[in-house]
Specification:
single chain, 527 residues, alpha+beta, seven-stranded mixed beta sheet, 17 helices, 38% helix, 19% strand
């Protein structure tokens, strides 16, 4: 049990790598930035080769930070955003960009170029929609592939591999073209609970009948925790590891966080439906685990076996949360670059103003936070944000008021998702929060007060790396299965509780929040 594991987490703006021991203790971590190309408003692209270079640099940095011997690293796995990588038949990058540059071969998860194609999928009424909440999102891979075939036919004709980013990374590492049950089920309409997972008639209906063959998609998905084999000699050299290191099946980044947060409850089927993970960063993702299948309109899933074998996942989310607070800071006249120092300055002033003005602070400002659509529970990528109650205040305090009420709206959006899930049979009363939002004390306070839930913040320094390390430890044989790895490697949490004296205030805000959704729909109907 003195063997170590390596974990890689590729987010929207950086690649992080960590070295952990078999008890889940993070020994060293390193981060390296990645580029994003924005050729148009709704377009976002990565260079997958640059991502791989960033991963290798991060891994070498993590090894140095941990003072670890590469020979002691028994296993590695990767989590990543659900971005789409396109390669030709020889594995070389193919452009997905209007620029035509081959280096931009990856459509980023947040890219909304395929809104029209997503709507077309939804109108099909196909049974696959029953397992994505009834509405196709432009953040999933099918509409992006439809867009690619229609708008870049030369790229489509030359394509030999379509890969979710996590699967691309395990392919680079091991040479295996197996795909993760997490990525295929959550983003490619693979029916993980069925013997024959692909519904080929769906792809025929939406005009990409050749997608599975052209992209070398396998008939079966690979379970989370499966060993894909050792690192190739080349990838071992590039990562600074050895060719005896085993590679575990990849996973989507938020799902890795959920594995770390909720995996320890897998042995308690009667109690697991009380818990909801919330992974908050640029966007937010919330997930619940259940032994039962609970279809919920507007909530992605239910997905089978995408985090732990034998369990269903319902996944909700908010397309912009941290990015929305950044936008508020950047776009306000008294704002500026939304770096950590600026956020800290705003948060500190909000605290002062709340003490001075009491419960009525900024109470006439109301925000709908759907500036990039409503992922859940409305499942409406066309939704837009709303601010009610603005005046001519362009001061820094005016910015602080808007920032506070935007944070309130983000927390109320979580309450909205939570209420919809509980109507379907969940009994959620505990939120497990991780990601960048744990560094914002306003959000941590609001997630408890606005939802009425107990809040648990993990003691682990990085839950995405921890969840991915659990997979690596399983693939390396340090534990007999993934559930036992989760039980052994979890690091505990600290709890906080809602303040009952503010419940009535947030109940009022929630009523306004729901009424604003109604009023937005009414206004849009007029136009």
């Amino acid at each position: 049990m003195d063997r170590l594991v390596a974990a890689v987490d590729v987010g929207t703006g950086s690649a992080r790598a960590g070295i952990l021991d078999a008890r889940g203790r993070l020994l060293g971590r390193y981060e390296h930035p990645i580029e994003m190309h924005r050729p148009a408003g709704d377009f976002a692209e990565h260079d997958s080769e640059q991502i791989w270079c960033a991963v290798c640099a991060a891994m070498r940095g993590a090894l140095q930070a941990a003072a670890a011997d590469p020979a002691d690293i028994a296993g590695i796995s990767f989590d990543a955003t659900c971005s789409l990588v396109v390669r030709d038949r020889l594995g070389r990058p193919l452009s997905v960009s209007p620029s035509g540059e081959a280096r931009w071969d990856t459509i980023v998860w947040l890219d909304h170029r395929a809104l029209e194609q997503a709507d077309e999928c939804t109108r099909s009424g196909h049974v696959v929609l029953d397992f994505i909440g009834g509405v196709m999102s432009p953040e999933m891979e099918t509409p992006k592939l439809m867009w690619l075939k229609r708008h870049m036919p030369a790229t489509w004709s030359a394509a030999g591999y379509f890969l979710d980013l996590a699967d691309f990374l395990t392919w680079k590492a091991s040479g295996s073209t197996e795909r993760s049950q997490c990525t295929l089920t959550c983003k490619w309409t693979f029916m993980g609970h069925e013997q024959r997972g692909w519904r080929r008639d769906f792809f025929e209906t939406v005009g990409i009948p050749d997608m599975l063959d052209r992209g070398q998609l396998p008939e079966r998905a690979s379970a989370i925790g499966k060993d894909l084999g050792p690192l190739t000699p080349q990838s071992a050299r590039e990562l600074g590891l050895t060719a005896s290191c085993r590679v575990g099946v990849g996973i989507i980044d938020a799902h890795a966080g959920t594995l770390a947060l909720l995996g320890g409850f897998a042995g308690d089927p009667s109690g697991m439906e009380r818990h909801l993970s919330l992974i908050g960063g640029t966007s937010s993702c919330v997930m619940s685990l259940s032994p039962a299948q609970r279809p919920t309109p507007g909530i992605w899933g239910p997905y089978y076996g995408v985090v732990l074998p034998g369990l269903w996942v319902n996944e909700g989310g908010q397309s912009v949360t941290g990015a929305l607070l950044d936008h508020v800071v950047r776009s306000h006249g008294a704002g500026g670059e939304p770096n950590a120092a600026m956020h800290a300055r705003v948060v500190a002033r909000v605290r002062q103003l709340r003490i001075a003005e009491g419960a009525d602070f900024a109470d006439r400002l109301h925000v709908l936070p759907d500036f990039h659509g409503n992922r859940s529970p409305l499942g409406d990528p066309h939704a837009r944000g709303v601010i009610s109650g603005l005046n001519l205040d362009a001061s820094f305090d005016g910015l602080c008021k808007l920032y506070w009420r935007t944070a309130v709206a983000i927390a109320l959006g979580v309450r909205h998702i939570l209420d919809v899930l509980n109507e379907r049979g969940f009994t959620i009363d505990t939120l497990h929060v991780s990601g960048g939002h744990v560094n914002n004390p306003l959000l941590i306070e609001l997630y408890a007060d606005a939802t009425g839930c107990t809040l648990e913040v993990p003691l682990a320094e990085d839950t995405m790396l921890l969840g991915t390390a659990m997979i690596a430890a399983t693939a390396a044989g340090l534990y007999p299965d993934l559930r036992q790895a989760c039980a052994a490697m979890q690091r505990g949490s600290r709890k906080s509780y809602p303040h009952p004296e503010v419940r009535a205030r947030f109940d009022r805000d929630y009523r306004v929040f729901l009424k604003m959704h109604e009023q937005r729909r009414a206004l849009e109907a007029l136009s």
